[in-house]
Design goal:
heterodimer, A: 223 residues, mainly alpha, 78% helix, B: 340 residues, alpha+beta, 4-stranded antiparallel β-sheet, 25 strands, 35% strand, flat
Chain lengths: 223, 340
């Protein structure tokens, strides 16, 4: 049954995952080709100078990609389920409803994590050819909150899809907007270092909204 | 599970309320507040503040309320006075020239936001004695690590083994304790000369790292030992009057002279909380520290940094809406902080 659920998710998301992967790869390549050009023309010293003296990690072009990727993946997973209330059928399968929801969500989070991880690895490898590990780590610590925003985008979009009433959807939307604003409040490198564990906890706790939405749906609450 | 969702959303909305509503309230109600530019005057022997109210002439007001013209600040407006032929030949009982005044003009600033942030342990290293006299962009960088300091060639991202070994040997001979704590330098060619970096080690001892002919020369300042330095700033001013400004553990501003002597001043300064502005001239240094609550001024003699006069000016307290803020003008971090 587990394999069937995962296969179903794969069928729903394979094209969007491919699209996200292509866009992420293209943007990452674009970002680092630009930096390569800078190094060829002005030397790697310019990258060092920018990373050390300016408020940049040189990969800011990738900042909003994870959150958009997260939202798109959630839509690709849940829109087929909520269209014509197909979710009812899914929930009536001979499988724990909580387990099913957890597996679908875990599939999305793992898929995103793999994509984010590959992008982060590519960035670290490329940047590591020009600057020392200390500056690469600074870039990765700065990008970590962008990836967390990707998870938040995924979980809040999923919660919005699964919430059966518009009134509560507005509330979820407000909380999602506030949480995402918080994650993009500052462009200063490593600004979120100390706060990151708390933000991570908040994002993980927001995953409970999916389960409460389904519980409300099962109670028959809907507009 | 239904209740969990409600509790999570209510808690999140409450947080959102205490974040957004005070921000909106303060955005609408708080009015900008500025204080007049104030310097100690060598002609009045008093603090004089610039007053440029609507329809008013360019004028200065001393602490007794007397109004003066540009001549109240002949050091700061020397160029303007000279263009009018109004620059005095003699000040404080000695002859002065425009060139001498301009060479001794000193301005230094410090902002808590530049200190309270996570900075990379990488420091661009300039050549202090460039072959063709003009300062050039750095080619190497110091990378401070827990086990030592490496010198890395930026073009290739490779450690310069010989140069690093020599630096480490020199540091060992001078008793430098890793890891380095504070670094202050200005790796820019937009200055007259380069003094490298002022560095404190793990035991708060003060050193200078300066690259001379492709070798990092290290100088220890024994007079600063035991000061428990919490702030260092390299100065590199045209007049070479100081090598740096230091703040000791007791919050006292200290002047580091090029010969290695450290002169304590009466100025108290908390670098991680207060803004600092130092405007110095041939005769006096005006040191201003400011927080959200007000500003304090010290006038110091330029010759020995002894205290000449003080002034304090509290800011009006405006009521602000209590709540939660995630950013601050005093640091570069995002984290929750209560405002009352």
């Amino acid at each position: 049954m587990n394999k069937m659920i995962l296969y179903k998710e794969w069928l729903k998301t394979r094209w969007i995952l491919l699209g996200i992967a292509v866009v992420m790869a293209a943007l990452t390549a674009y970002c680092f080709l630009n930096l390569t050009k800078v190094v060829q023309i002005r030397g790697a010293e310019l990258l060092w100078e920018a990373l050390v003296t300016k408020e940049t990690v040189l990969t800011e072009i990738l900042r909003y990609v994870p959150v958009i990727a997260g939202a798109l993946l959630a839509l690709s997973q849940w829109i087929p389920e909520i269209q014509r209330k197909r979710l009812k059928l899914t929930l009536h399968l001979p499988y724990s409803q909580t387990g099913m929801l957890a597996m679908i969500t875990a599939y999305g989070l793992v898929a995103l994590t793999v994509l984010f991880g590959l992008q982060a690895l590519a960035c670290a490898w490329a940047m590591g050819t020009w600057v020392p590990a200390e500056l690469v780590a600074r870039m990765l610590r700065t990008m970590a909150v962008w990836y967390l925003a990707g998870w938040a985008g995924y979980l809040f979009t999923s919660a919005l899809c699964l919430e059966p009433t518009w009134r509560m959807r507005v509330v979820v939307l407000g909380v999602a907007a506030g949480a995402l604003r918080l994650m993009f409040l500052s462009g200063v490198p490593e600004a979120y270092n100390g706060f990151f564990p708390w933000l991570l906890l908040f994002v993980l706790l927001s995953g409970g909204l999916l389960f409460s939405g389904v519980a409300r749906f099962k109670e028959g609450l809907q507009d | 599970m239904k209740n969990y969702g409600k509790i999570f959303l209510i808690a999140s909305l409450a947080l959102l309320f205490f974040w957004v509503v005070p921000w909106l309230y303060n955005l609408i109600t708080l009015k900008p507040y500025s204080t007049p530019f104030t310097l100690y005057s060598c002609t009045l022997h008093d603090f004089a503040s610039l007053d440029r109210g609507e329809g008013k002439e360019f004028q200065f007001i001393d602490t007794k309320g007397n109004v003066h013209g540009d001549e109240a600040q002949p050091m700061f407006y020397a160029g303007v006075l000279a263009s009018r032929g109004a620059l005095p030949d003699t000040l404080e009982g000695r002859a002065v020239s425009l060139e001498e005044i301009e060479r001794n003009a000193v301005i230094a600033t410090s902002d808590p936001k530049d200190i309270n942030r996570t900075l990379p342990p990488v420091y661009l290293l300039m050549e202090s004695v460039p072959e063709r006299l003009e300062l050039k962009d750095p080619e190497d960088a110091l990378v401070s690590r827990s086990r030592g300091i490496d010198i890395v060639k930026m073009a290739t991202n490779e450690i310069r083994a010989d140069k690093t070994a020599l630096l480490r040997q020199t540091l060992q001979e001078q008793g430098f304790a890793y890891p380095a704590k504070l670094f202050s330098g200005k790796p820019s060619h937009r200055k007259a000369y380069d003094e490298g970096y002022l560095v404190t080690d793990a035991q708060d001892k003060l050193y200078q790292f300066k690259q001379v002919n492709d070798t990092v020369v290290v100088r220890h300042f024994p007079e600063a030992d035991g000061l428990a330095l919490k702030f260092v700033m390299i100065t590199e001013f045209d007049n070479h009057a100081t090598l740096g400004y230091l703040v000791s553990g007791d919050g006292r501003l200290q002047m580091l002279l090029p010969d290695g002597h450290v002169i304590p001043t009466e100025v108290s300064f908390t670098p991680e909380k207060e803004d600092l502005l130092i405007v110095g001239d041939l005769f006096y240094y005006t040191v201003k520290t400011s927080t959200d609550e007000g500003e304090r001024f010290w006038a110091l003699s330029s010759s020995d940094f002894s205290l000449v006069d003080t002034l304090s000016r509290p800011y009006p307290r405006e009521g602000s809406f209590p709540g939660i803020r995630f950013t601050s003008a005093n640091d570069g971090w995002v984290k929750p902080r209560l405002t009352l």
